[in-house]
Amino acid sequence: MESKSITKLVYTVNTIILMLVYGLMFFFYLCKVHFLTIFSIPTSMIYLIGYYLIYKNKLDYYVWMVFSWLTLYMGVTTICLGYNYGFHLYCFSMIPTMFVSEYISYKLKKKSLKALHISLIIAVFYMFCTGYISIFGPVYQTSAKAETVFWIFNAISVFSFLIFYSNYLIRAIIISEEKLTEIAHIDRLTNLYNRHYMTKRMETLPCNETGSFLAMADIDKFKNINDTYGHNGGDEVLKAVSSVMKNECTDCEIARWGGEEFLIFSAAPLADGKDMLEKLRKKIENSPVCFEGQEIHVTITIGMAIKQPDQSIDSWINEADKKLYFGKNNGRNRVIE
Predict the structure, then answer these.
(1) Model confidence at 112, in pLDDT bands (50, 70, 90)?
(2) What is the pTM of this model?
(3) SS3 (DSSP) at 51
(4) Cα separation of 227 and 180, whole Å?
(5) How many CB atoms lie within 10 A of CB 320?
(6) CA 50 to chain centre
(7) CA torsion angle for 247, 248, 249, 254 (degrees, to 10)?
(8) Mind telling me the catalytic residues?
(9) Is the pLDDT of residue 230 over 60?
């Protein structure tokens, strides 16, 4: 959630509310409710000041000002006109809007708005205003036609805000959760899956699953690369090798298992698994990595294993790992089946 997109959203909402205020002001004038017509003038000023606060990135001050005045506006209009105009309904849209605002404040690392406390205050104020009306009645009496028009207008406005803010909050939470999941599952340097994800993924295989494909790959003499070209050079090699793996092993899931070691996995059997790995090995061997005007020649060694009946995940990984280190100890730049 970027600050610019939030600012644009607040500008849009502020403009919509200001237009609503002017529309209501016109209705008050037609109904000859002079106090509310005049009261609409300072109300419109609140939202004009709001543009300045948004421009200055003082969103916390803006929210406090707007919600305080909205609460007052709801109370004054309800006492003046009664239930039948629907102004008391704005309380129900203000409460979820407050929680959305608190969420946005949290994402922007701004001061918390304490939405729960403010919502309780709004609820108490709502009870006071509606209680006053039930005892004393509204200050103004207007036509039934005006009541109907206001009720429809206010109901549509309240439902629109409820739907918009509820949808916005849910979308924002979903996007945030997706980003958190990606951070938890993806290695940031290589953009491959990480060890945590791959372990959980393989655990989803049925115990009696057979034929699934697994390979462990390791960059040969990676320490020498780091010692010669520095860790930045090593990082470039890791990214380049990862890119080749993703291009060559299109039917597999690939994880950075640790350091310079990678795990290549397919839940479905791969008839050409050995050929795919040989193609991968040759591609990496023939694709030197360019770093600061130099070419870094890279090779990998791979050990592969096919899952056997009732074989545990740990045993399966260990089998591929043993084959990998057999290849490392017997010439490197090989695929051991």
Answers:
(1) low
(2) 0.58
(3) helix
(4) 34
(5) 22
(6) 27
(7) -50
(8) 260
(9) yes
